[in-house]
Every structure is written in structure tokens, then in C-alpha cells.
Design brief:
alpha+beta, Aminopeptidase, 13-stranded mixed sheet, 11 helices, globular
């Protein structure tokens, strides 16, 4: 076996092609969009912050890994793929870790993303069916690779699903009445024609609600606006809700349609032809699931029934839409037991789980 550093466009294309071998007999697998991975690891990488490698056997790629420098003294390993061979997997881990050590890092997190925590984060250990957009999906045998190498569990991320037939509407309605009875609290969905305002409101809420979290990184309204604009082709106004106390933004609940139900027809390529295929299938594929990406309430307004009020808006939509059947609520960390308890109490059930590991190096 031979480790090869990815330092050319040709080798990076080979890096992108590794999953074709790993998942060629897996009917559940939906390829990530090649252009998105390229943007993260190849186009936007900062000098000396990303290392990328292929593992070859007889000149055939059998594995891959990327390593990157994160904040503080932590590094990350991600975009790992490997055949079912522990020696091969450990060689990839060692390669990435050696590079991180050369950058004077003392802790590695894996498998994680070079960028936002809500994308390509964590190893799937439960629910190996119907992977969602930008969600890590992997063979079950990967878990033993991480354990045998000495990685320890840092975060368990739960993905919950709820459908109208399980939704405890009576309980949520009772909690949401706190909002209904407060004339100062207004819940409304976004307007695509005014994204600049909602980007500023989102940034204000996010920065107030998450500033106490260990991994908090402030968001600028410019960054949020750029993200919202990129979401426009799949954005439904009635899936993104904000709550205001008079004119002050105090909470949001952001969902999107599950675009993997469309992307599964694109074979991971969103080039010009892939974009045409996306538009074709978008108009013909009845999307059955929405994916809750993020919700937050500023500290001063927690406990006022606002989350329940926004949930009611979303699930009234699911009940009336002829195609939607379920909502998936992703990335609920085990460090947030109150949210896990709330979701259980309203009828949600865990369908998938991911583990984020860490290791001292």
C-alpha cells in the first residue's frame, strides 16, 4: 500500500472518485455533490491548513483522508473513506495525524468538516438508510476502525424524525398558547425578496443564543446572506420561521426540503448538465421530507413557548401539504438533554446517530 499526497487536480479527481468503489453495491448511498467537496477542500483551502491523501494498492485507490487545522490546538480529520481493511484505515489515520503534529496540534477531532459543524460532521453509527443532504454516511465497519485506533467519543449527535401521526399536537398547542397570548410576540416566515433583513436577524439571534457554547464562532450578516442566497433554489418561505418581540428578532426555526430525494438522480455531479437534471427532477419528484437545520432562541426569551409556536407552524404545513410526510431534526447533541427530552415528549423518535471522536496526539 502506498500513501500519495493529493497535490494536483488529477489526483483530487481521484480523491473524489474513491466512494464509487466503497459504495458500489450499497443501494442506500447517495453521492455528495462533487462541486461542494471541491469548494471546501480544494478551491477555498487556506495555505498550509489542509492536507489531502490517497491510499493506493497496485495503483488503485482504496482509501482517502483529509486533515485540517481548526481553532486553537485542535485539528480535524474528515472525508475519510476506506475499504474494509483495518491496516489501510490506520495508515490513513496515521498519515493525517502526523501532518497535524507537524502543525503543532495536540488534539484531533474526527470525522469532521473543514468548516461548518452542521455539514459532513460525525461518523454514522445508527440508521444506515436514506442519508440526508450533506450528512455523513458510511459503512458500519468504519466504527471499529476509529475505536481500534484509540479514538474516544466526544459528542453523540442524534437525528430525530417526527410525522403528523406521532406529533403530540395537544401538548405543543398548549405550550404555544404562551406565544398566542402575548401580543408582542409575532411568528412569521421569511420573504425571499428581503433576504438581507433576515440574514441580519439570523446573525443577531445566532450570536446571542450560541455565544456560551464551547465551539462558538460568531456569524456575520454577510456570511448568512451569502448562505441564504445559495439556498434560494431549494428554499421554501413557509419552512423558515422567525419570531419577533415587537421589532426585535428573538428566535428562528430553519428547515429545507430534503434535496437528497432529488440529488439521488444526479450521481453527485452538479455541473451544467447536473443543474438541468436537478431542475427537471425538482419539478417531477414529490419531496416527502423536510429537514430541520437549526433553531435557536435568545436566552432572555427561552421558556416562553416560542419553539413550540414555530413547531406548530411547520407541522400545520406538513398536515396540509399533499406530499410532505415527515420532518427530520438533525444534529441534536448529547450535551443538550433538554432538547432531547422535549423532542421525545412531542412524539419524535431517533432514526439516526453520529459520533464525533477525539484523540490526543
Amino acid at each position: 500500500m502506498q500513501i500519495v499526497k493529493v497535490d494536483s487536480s488529477k489526483l483530487f479527481r481521484a480523491f473524489l472518485d474513491v466512494p464509487k468503489r466503497i459504495y458500489k453495491n450499497d443501494p442506500e448511498y447517495i453521492p455528495h455533490i462533487r462541486q461542494e467537496i471541491k469548494k471546501i477542500l480544494w478551491d477555498n483551502k487556506a495555505p498550509n491548513e489542509v492536507g489531502i491523501w490517497l491510499l493506493l494498492n497496485n495503483n488503485e485507490a482504496i482509501g482517502r483522508i483529509a486533515a485540517f487545522v481548526n481553532k486553537g490546538d485542535k485539528g480535524g480529520l474528515g472525508f475519510f473513506e476506506c475499504i474494509n481493511d483495518q491496516t489501510a484505515a490506520h495508515l490513513l489515520f496515521k498519515t493525517g495525524i502526523t501532518w497535524l503534529q507537524s502543525n503543532r496540534l495536540s488534539i484531533v477531532e474526527a470525522p469532521v468538516n473543514y468548516g461548518e459543524r452542521d455539514k459532513f460532521w460525525g461518523l454514522m453509527v445508527k440508521g444506515f438508510q436514506k442519508p440526508s443532504y450533506q450528512e455523513n454516511y458510511n459503512p458500519a465497519y468504519y466504527e471499529e476502525f476509529f475505536k481500534s485506533f484509540g479514538f474516544e467519543i466526544m459528542i453523540r449527535q442524534s437525528t430525530q424524525e417526527i410525522s403528523p401521526d406521532r406529533f403530540n399536537e395537544k401538548k405543543i398547542s398548549a405550550l404555544a398558547k404562551k406565544v398566542d397570548n402575548n401580543p408582542d410576540l409575532i411568528i412569521k416566515h421569511i420573504d425571499k425578496q428581503n433576504l438581507r433583513k433576515y440574514a441580519a436577524d439570523f446573525a443577531a439571534i445566532y450570536n446571542a443564543a450560541w455565544k456560551q457554547h464551547e465551539h462558538f464562532v460568531p456569524l456575520s450578516k454577510e456570511k448568512v446572506l451569502k448562505l441564504m442566497k445559495s439556498m434560494k433554489p431549494v428554499m421554501r418561505e413557509d419552512l423558515i420561521w422567525f419570531t419577533y418581540d415587537k421589532d426585535k428578532p428573538v428566535a428562528f426555526y430553519v428547515s429545507i426540503i430534503e434535496v437528497n430525494e432529488i440529488f439521488k438522480y444526479l450521481n453527485g455531479n452538479l455541473n451544467w448538465f447536473g443543474k438541468l437534471k436537478f431542475l427537471y427532477f425538482k419539478s417531477r419528484v414529490p419531496v416527502t421530507k423536510i429537514r430541520g437545520l437549526v433553531f435557536g432562541v435568545i436566552p432572555s426569551h427561552q421558556g416562553l413557548g416560542i419553539t413550540s409556536g414555530m413547531m406548530m407552524k411547520v407541522f400545520k404545513l406538513i398536515k396540509t401539504d399533499p406530499h410532505l410526510q415527515t420532518s427530520e431534526l438533525a444534529w441534536i447533541g448529547d450535551f443538550n438533554p433538554r432538547m432531547l427530552q422535549l423532542l421525545a415528549s412531542i412524539g419524535a423518535a431517533e432514526i439516526k446517530a453520529h459520533i464525533t471522536y477525539q484523540k490526543k496526539i
